[in-house]
Specification:
By secondary structure, the chain is an alpha+beta fold. Helix content is 54%, strand content 19%. Helix 2 packs antiparallel against helix 4 and helix 8 packs antiparallel against helix 9.
């Protein structure tokens, strides 16, 4: 403002004196001095106001401004007057534009670049203790949130899969009962017997799905499952609906009338699950690295299997509860070929869940056992001695894709499809020589990294 006041050719010298006085005051901004001291020290400000010639400046303003003001255009009668007006406007604007350019250049030099700002922000991130504490707290909170979301999604996926199957089977039962009634009235006893058999099979399948939901609930939360599916009562309601439906199929309204039975049960299970997870606190995830000792390495080289006893060796501290193994990784698989390599030379270190585990929660120890022939939990790594590349042994993407397709799962890949074994268990370890032709191999060392969830009470 001070610079433009001195540059405007009209209203001088008063406007210029005011502008220069503002410039003097602005130069003291940021000095933390009282305004009275600044004014008393700036004698030139007083001198400027003493020399103000307001009447002369007013005449100067009116004289120059009358030549360039906008309504002057309406008074122009010919080209000569228009040319004169434009010349006056140009002369009036020149010093203003020049002063504005000088100010723009001045502030451009004082502008801080984005690079400098970014560098200062990074400096704050790396050195400021408060920022570091906030960042760590936020990361810890997000990790806990992700764990909870993953747990809830897994439970909901299992429940939705089972409830969906129950819907479909109840629909089939209702149709079978309708046709059974039709056949009874026509006297076809053979067909009635067949439909009775199909109805019994469908009821059995529904009860099996409910049993799987109960098993998953009790294993995950270590709490009894009390939900009753009320299969006979529900089928009787379906019979009543189908009997008045001449098409022998459940309409959308009929289906909605029965859907509330299961959605309320589903809501109750989800609510109780969230309550239990909230009461117990969010599980934490940690990693434990185990190193094979010399005796274990020698046993593996001789073709024997070894067992890592995570219970007696007290791998997990006593204050850790509800320990479940998420993943087992094999690292630093060091193997030496004692003979010349042939067409292929691969070895693997494979780890399998024994099928029995304990899970401790509070003061109670729960024992779980499963048929390892039906569902195998395996981990490990393979090492190609020709290329020197070590790779993880994991479940096939095609099998995961098939399971997702069968259960209609459209959720995130982070959802665990299979249950996780308890941490208080034994892990079976085997060293396998897959070379062709077969040559002698020697295992020197390896590490096993166990990634697990746990809680503290």
């Amino acid at each position: 403002v001070a610079a433009l006041s001195t540059a405007i050719p009209a209203g001088q010298p008063a406007l210029g004196l005011i502008g220069s006085s503002l410039g003097i005051l602005s130069s003291h901004i940021g000095t933390h001095r009282p305004l009275g001291d600044i004014i008393s020290d700036s004698s030139s400000i007083y001198n400027n106001f003493q020399s103000l010639k307001l009447e002369e400046s007013s005449q100067n303003w009116n004289e120059i401004w009358s030549k360039v003001k906008l309504n002057r255009v309406a008074e122009i009668n010919n080209k000569d007057e228009l040319k004169e007006y434009l010349n006056n406007l140009t002369e009036f604007s020149k010093p203003i534009i020049a002063a504005a350019k000088v100010q723009a250049d001045h502030w451009r030099k004082r502008e801080i670049s984005r690079t400098e700002i970014s560098a200062e922000i990074e400096k704050i991130k790396n050195t400021h203790s408060v920022f570091k504490d906030v960042t760590k707290s936020l990361k810890r909170f997000m990790d806990q949130k992700n764990v909870l979301v993953r747990e809830v999604n897994t439970i909901q996926a299992d429940i939705l899969k089972t409830i969906s199957s129950i819907y479909n089977n109840f629909d089939k039962v209702s149709e079978l009962n309708y046709h059974k009634g039709e056949l009874l009235s026509n006297g076809d006893t053979n067909m009635v017997s067949l439909l009775d058999s199909l109805e019994a099979e469908t009821k059995s399948r529904i009860l099996k799905y409910n049993y799987e939901v109960a098993r998953a609930y009790e294993y995950r939360l270590l709490k009894p499952y009390f939900n009753n599916i009320n299969i006979n009562s529900t089928i009787e309601k379906m019979k009543a609906i189908v009997e008045v439906d001449t098409e022998a199929y459940l309409s959308s309204k009929d289906f909605e009338a029965l859907e509330g039975i299961y959605t309320s049960e589903l809501a109750e299970i989800v609510d109780r699950t969230l309550t239990e997870l909230n009461n117990d606190g969010l599980p934490l995830q940690r990693e434990k690295v185990l190193q094979l000792n010399r005796a274990e390495v020698n046993a593996l080289n001789s073709g024997k299997d070894i067992y890592l006893d995570l219970v007696t060796e007290k791998i997990f501290s006593d204050d850790m509860h509800d320990v479940r193994i998420n993943k087992v990784l094999v690292e630093d698989l060091a193997v030496e070929n004692l003979e010349e390599l042939g067409r292929s030379a691969e070895v693997s270190l494979e780890i399998a869940y024994s099928g029995e585990s304990f899970i401790k929660k509070g003061g109670t120890l729960y024992f779980f056992e499963k048929d390892t022939h039906k569902q195998k939990t395996k981990w490990g790594a393979s090492l190609d001695l020709i290329s020197g590349v070590q790779s993880e042994i994991k479940s096939s993407p095609s099998s995961d894709s098939l399971i997702n397709s069968l259960i209609g799962n459209q959720a995130s890949d982070d959802i665990m499809l299979l249950s996780r074994p308890g941490g208080l268990t034994q892990l079976k370890v085997r060293f396998r020589n897959n070379s062709n032709p077969k040559i002698k191999m020697k295992l020197h060392r390896s590490r096993i990294r166990i990634i697990y969830d746990y809680n503290t009470f």
